[in-house]
Amino acid sequence: MTERLLGDVWTHRLLLIALLGVIVFIQLLPLKTHDLDLPEPDILLGVLAAWMLRRPNYVPVGLLVFVGLLTDFLFLRAPGAWTMLMVIAFEIIRARGRRDGNMTFITEISIVAIVFAGLFSANALLLLVFGVSQPPFGSTVLHYAFTVAVYPLVAMVTVFVFHVRRPNPAELVGIRGRV
Amino acid sequence: MARFQPDEDTPVPMLRRILLGGTLVLLFLLFLIWRIDNPRVERMRNAVVDAIVPNMEWALVPVTRAQRMLSDFESYARVYDQNQELRRELQQMQAWREAALQLEQENARLLDLNNVRLDPKLTFVTGVVTADNGTTFRRSVVLNIGSRDSIRDGWAAVDGLGLVGRIAGVSDETSRVLLLTDPASLVPVTIQPSRETALLSGDGSFAPFLEFVDDPEQVRPGDRVVTSGDARVFPDGLLVGRVALDPEGRFRVRLAADFERLEFLRVLRAVPAPAIGDAEPLIDPNPVPPDDLQADASSND
Q1: Interchain contact, A61 vs B23, CB within 8 Å
Q2: Does any domain span residue B118?
Q3: How far is CA B99 from the centre of its chain?
C-alpha cells in the first residue's frame, strides 16, 4: 500500500515536471510574430496552484525552487526574488488547501486570485525597494488579470486531462497512515 | 476528528520549517548578490542558458518552420490585395532601381577617385536566432554564436535591413541580443537630414521612443534615423528606421529591421572609433623657443 502510494506520488511529480518543461519550452520558442503588446498569462503559476490545491504532496518545495530559479534565469528576471516570493505564496496556498479539504471552485479561484495579487504586488514592491527596473504598472496589472482569468481553464485541464483530483476520504486515511 | 490536521509538534514538520526558512534566506541572498555583484550572477545566467538552449535546437527547428508556414498560409487569404500592393511597390521599386544604379555608378567613380579602402574591421559574423526570452516584458533573442566565435559584449546586431540590437551577455556557444524594443535599451541616434541627436529608448512595443530631441521643430515624420556613434555604443551611420508620430504626438521610430521575423542576424565586428583623448599629441611636445620662431619667420620672408 505504502509503496504503491509512494510510486504514484513520484510518477505525478515527474509528470508535473514534464508538463512545466513543455510550458517553458513553448514560452522560449521564437514565435512573437504578433504586434500585440498585451502580456500573456503566466500559465506556469496556474498549473502549480491547481496541482497544489488538489495534491499538495505532488508539489514539494524543492520542485518550486527548481522551477522558480530555472525560469528566473531563463526569463531574465532578477534571480531569487521571484522564486522566494513564489515559494512563500505557494506555502500559503498549501496551508489553505490543507485546512479546507473540500472547498468549492469559487473559493478556490478567490484564494488563487488573492494570493497571486499578493505575490505580484510583493514582487513589484521588492523590486521597487531595491531599485531594479520593472515593467510599467499597467502591464503588470494586465499580466495578473490574465493569469487569474485563465486559471479556471488550467484547473479544468488539471482535473479532466491529468486526472489530478482531491484525495477522497479513503485515500486520506492511507496518506495519514503513511505519515 | 475526520479532518486531516498536520501535527505541529512532530519533528518532521519542524525540520521542514527550518529547511523552508533556510531556502528562503538563500534565495534572498542570491537576489542580494545579484543586485551587488551583477556581472558574476549574469555570467551564471549565461551558463544556464548555454546549457539549456542548444539542447532545444532540434525541437525549435520544425516548430519554428511549421509556425512560419502557418503564417504564410494565412497570407493566402489576402492574395489579391497583396498582388495589387506588390504591383504598386514594384513600380516604385523600378524608380528606386534607376536611382540606385545611378548612385552606384557615382559611388564607384568617387571610390575610384579617392582610392578608398573599407575598414577591414567592418566584418561580421552571422548567427541564427535559436530562442526568444520567453517573458512578457523583456525583448531579447538568443543567437547560436558565442565567445567561441569571438563575439563580444556590446557589438551591434543587424538583420540585412537595419539595426536590431546589441549583444548583451555572451557565453561559450550562445549570446543574447538585447533588442532595440527592450525597455532597458537606450541607443544614441542621429536624425537625418537635420542632424538632430536623440536617444532611442525602448518601451516593449514595436516602435521605440525618441527621447531628448534638441529641437523637435526640426524633426518630421519620415526622417531617417541612424546611429550616431556617440558614447561609443555603436559605429555611426547604421540605419535604424524612420521617424513616426504616435497619436499622443510623441516621436517614435518605425524600425527598419523586420522584428516580426528575426531569423539570421549579423553581428558587426565593428569597433567604434576610439575617442579623442586629451589634446597632447596635437601640440608639439618640444616647443620651439621664441627667438628661433622669429628667425624662422624672417627666413621665410
Answers
A1: yes
A2: no
A3: 30
